[in-house]
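Membrane protein
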Amino acid sequence: MARKETAADAANPGRLKQIALTYRMTRKVDPRIGLVLAAVGIVTFGVLLAIGFLIGHPVYLGILGLLLALLATAIVFGRRAERAAFGQMEGQPGAAAAVLDNIGRGWTTTPAVAMNRNQDVVHRAVGKAGIVLVAEGNPNRVKSLLAAEKKKMNRIVADVPVHDIIIGNGEGQVELKKLRTTMLKLPRVLTGPQVTATNDRLRALGDLMSNMPLPKGPLPKGMRMPKGGPRLR
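Tokens:
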């Protein structure tokens, strides 16, 4: 029993520090976050308390209002913090891979399965919806990367559906903040054993980093990626 209490006590400061860190990071992008949260909490509590006085139960409604105010504040804080995080990630190399890594259980992500000399990159995620190829970079250049990778997937796992997504704000593209939602909306067509079998077959290919013939030790100065990028065999 003492061990459980000690673990709980140790975890609480960690959570508070994490919340404080998230708040500071959010405030850098959203300077009005403090005023917004205060307004949400005060308005929610004030409305419930006023209703309590009207119906003759200010204590009960006051307690309920306090709880709802904390809940509403937490929800608004979470959404604005998420929006701020995506705002900072937008346009950064590897941002889509970071989102894929946190998409949830049931998905296996392999970052950078294809890349060219301009650092346009394709990531791969495998789940019950099949294979999802997510491209970051110039929309015109990544189309050829996607086409080559999709052709490879169809050759190796022809019985598994392959979806492709280009990250961006243009027509036919998916915004970074909507990537997780878009993938979770894809129809589930594979069973658990089928997902495992697909991952095993793709794992045999390796990934771009494991197949890239890099020399041991520090990279020589001025070394450039070969034209067309490394290719998987």
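Residues 1-11, 208-233 have pLDDT under 50 and may be disordered.
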